[in-house]
Amino acid sequence: MPGMEEEYVPERGGIHYFFWILTVRYNIWTGSYCLEPWERKLFNITMITVLLMTVWTAYMFLPGWLTSSMSMLCASTDKILAHAGDMTKSIGDNFH
Questions:
Q1: Dihedral of alpha carbons 12, 39, 31, 29, sign
Q2: What share of the chain is helix, strand, coil (3-state, %, to 5)?
Q3: Residue 42: Cβ within 10 Å count
Q4: Which residues, at least 6 apart from 47, have a Cβ–Cβ distance to it below 8 Å?
């Protein structure tokens, strides 16, 4: 068709082809191939911002949450293991 340029497709199997396929899949999955170039840039900036904020939030708050969760879990696990240890002591005492 007049006015339509052929899209560049790199050779199969190379690293350029891998990143080209990732880009095509991202554009199709998000529907950004339908957008104007300025809309696509705005959309991509928004997506990158949301991704970075999610990673930053996980980096800042996830370690504290995991630490408190594990301490609660380990505290209850320690009680169970201590009780199980008392039981094995009493069982072991019966065999001596």
A1: positive
A2: 80, 0, 20
A3: 12
A4: 30
In this predicted model, what pLDDT tens digit does every residue of 44-94 receive, in sequence order? 999 999 999 999 999 999 888 888 887 777 766 666 656 655 555 555 555
Structure-token match 């840039």, residue found: 41
**Per-residue tokens: 79:** 């009680």
Q: Which of 4-8, 11-15, 44-48 has the least mean pLDDT?
A: 4-8
Query: In sequence order, what are the residues at sequence separation of 6 or more whose Cβ sits closer than 8 angstroms to the Cβ of residue 26?
Result: 32
Contact 77, 69 (CB under 8 A): no
Q: Which of 7, 49, 2, 3 is nearest to 27 (CA)?
A: 7
